[in-house]
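Deviation from plan, reported transparently: zinc ion complex.
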Amino acid sequence: MTSVPHSARGADALARAWSVLESVPDPEIPVVSIRELGILRSVEQADDGTLEVVITPTYSGCPAMAHIAEDIAHALERAGLTPHRIKTVLAPAWTTDWITDEAREKLRAYGIAPPGGRCAGTPAGGSEQAIRFVARSAGSPACPRCGSAHTERLSQFGSTACKALYRCLDCREPFDYFKPY
Ligand SMILES: [Zn+2]
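Because the crystal trials were delayed, the predicted structure below was used instead.
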């Protein structure tokens, strides 16, 4: 029998923290996790044994960020991973390019057109600016339901400021488009 309490110390704690945090969903889009969205940047162990969780907010002023920090704290506490602290890092700024391919598929299945702008065709060595320019000039998103490219924007803002409201001209369904950022 061991009397060692659950603690955040040890290499094992880092692995456990990652697996706990990988299951923390985004408050607005529960089908994707904060890791898949690129909000969770790193989990490290400070010299005093405290777990340091680094997150980068998505859109500035996104009200979900306070929830995310709370959810992280609760998840770690439930797993006995204390002490911990959550650091918010603003630079480099979050971009939709950090959203994993897996999460893009989940967004589509959820009815949200994933952000355009991941340029597979961008030559290696192309400058960051060139990549971003191409990303921003991406055309209308494809309908997440029927895949049609015939879509029109109804509103700059969808269910949240992070998204725009579009409508498919083929299946006539409105959908949210996760704006590239
Ligand atoms: Zn459609």
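The radius of gyration is 19 Å. We consider this an acceptable substitute for the interim report.
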